[in-house]
Specification:
CATH class: Mainly Beta
Helix content: under 10%
Strand content: over 45%
Largest sheet: 18 strands, antiparallel, barrel
Number of helices: 3
Number of strands: 18
Shape: globular
Distance between the termini: 28 Å
Order of helices and strands: HEEEEEEEHEEEEEEEEEEHE
Number of domains: 1
């Protein structure tokens, strides 16, 4: 939808383009986050954190050949023993991308194209709910492998991937707090393959998309895992926004396979049956601010007391565009969630855009932990209502294409579950703010 594409375009560094030759770009983002009434279990009730992310990108083109590299340096400062600092915040001096690409127009006849890429790269596929290079988070997802993009006549396109997702390192608490440099690894203990096919209809605003991904994970000498073997299939229908017109999006995802009950070597294997759905309908008004009003609904299954494991796994998907910020809030994701919503987006000028959204939140299963909070009542007696979430964002280009300021805010008025569950954190209403400045060069 519009907000997903805008988020991607406005967050990437400003490049120096060249048809043939070298192009260079980069950005540095400084963020200050503060939270009170932390809803996630096991962390400080109130906290703040400073993060800095620097990205340097280069690509050399000669004819159909491309050689590219991208360095990420993600660091945090100011945390203490109770601050949620993970590989989502820290990944220092990491060559996330280092690839070779080749483009072959007319590979399958007139009006066709084949694009090939191999090495390390980032991925944003389809809705980005399953495979993405996260934008809001201080670190991103990297993948090592091969990618093929095919464009065919009649507005048909397809993408296929075989990758080893990069495991971010270091992953020990002390090393993360110290921003220690340790290079990420990839191996065949974690594999992601699959792809998607898209058909645009005659009006070019509407399309249908089919996707399938397989994730295979197993224990290694360095890391015990849940030994996931997950197959995930999705069907997505989209009608893009346009002034004075209705738009919609529907995505339904079903997931099956197997998973270990825990990381223990002797843990039993469970069959998986989980699903996710996103429904959205909107309207863009004819007004200089291009206001876009939409109603939304998200459902992600949770694990219950049945014989099958039912908690939906969003794989490597992003959360910010649909649900809520990551960072030290990071409480609402695509797992054990029922969340209808109302959203308004505006763009008063080329330099300013903003949105506000309201969502009441429920647990899909009262026996599973709520979304990504880690708060759980195995007895189910704490109920299913988690609370009311109100969020907003404002972005402003202080210097067009060079310096952008951004504010994100969330208020979570906790419901009965987040007040009564056995391991609920101490504290009342959650208030989260983040202040960002991004310099592009």
């Amino acid at each position: 939808m519009k907000r997903i594409s805008l988020s991607v375009l406005l967050l990437v560094p400003t490049p120096v383009f060249a048809e043939d030759g070298l192009s260079l770009s980069g950005s540095t983002r400084l963020r200050y986050e503060v939270i009170g009434g932390q809803p996630r279990a096991g962390f400080n009730e109130s906290d703040d954190l400073v993060s800095i992310r620097t990205i340097a990108t280069g690509e050399y083109r000669t004819g159909p050949l491309r050689l590219g590299a991208e360095l990420y340096d993600s660091r945090v400062y100011g945390g203490d023993a109770g601050t949620p600092i993970t590989t989502g915040e820290v990944n220092t001096l990491e060559l996330v991308q280092a690839y070779v690409g080749y483009e072959a127009p007319g590979a399958f006849g007139p009006n066709t194209k084949l694009g090939l890429q191999a090495g390390r790269f980032t991925l944003n596929l389809g809705s980005r709910r399953l495979v993405a290079a996260d934008d809001y988070r201080n670190t991103t997802n990297g993948y090592t492998g091969v990618r093929a993009d095919i464009t065919l006549p009649d507005s048909f396109s397809a993408t296929a991937i075989y990758t080893l997702p990069q495991v971010r390192l270091p992953d020990g608490r002390a090393d993360l707090v110290d921003n220690r440099v340790k290079f990420d690894r990839e191996n065949f203990d974690l594999v992601l393959w699959g792809g998607l096919a898209t058909k645009k209809f005659a009006n070019k605003r509407s399309s249908i998309e089919l996707a399938f991904y397989h994730l295979g994970e197993r224990d290694s000498p360095r890391l015990a895992t849940r030994d996931r073997s997950l197959d995930t299939a999705s069907l997505r229908l989209i009608r893009d926004p346009a002034p004075g017109s209705f738009d919609f999006e529907s995505e339904t995802i079903y997931q099956w396979g197997s998973i270990s009950a825990s990381v223990a070597a002797t843990a039993p294997t469970l069959d998986v049956s989980a699903w996710f759905a996103h429904l959205e309908a909107g309207y863009t008004f004819r007004h200089p601010w291009s206001p876009h009003l939409s109603i939304e609904f998200d459902y992600a299954s949770g694990d219950g007391r049945g014989a099958k494991f039912a908690r939906f796994d969003t794989l490597f998907g992003m959360r910010r565009a649909d649900l809520a910020p990551a960072g030290i809030y990071n409480a609402v994701g695509r797992a054990n969630l029922i969340a209808p919503g109302l959203r308004i987006e505006v763009a008063p000028s080329k330099r300013v855009d903003a949105f506000a959204a309201y969502r009441p939140l429920w647990l899909a299963s009262r026996y599973d932990s709520f979304s990504t909070t880690g708060v759980r009542d195995a007895s189910g007696s704490a109920g299913r209502f988690a609370g009311h979430q109100v969020e907003a964002r404002v972005r402003y280009w202080l210097l067009p294409k060079r310096l952008r300021l951004e504010w994100n805010g969330v208020l979570l008025a906790k419901g009965g579950f987040l007040r009564d569950a056995p391991n609920v954190p101490i504290g009342g209403t959650t208030i989260y703010n983040s202040f960002n400045a991004t310099i592009s060069f």
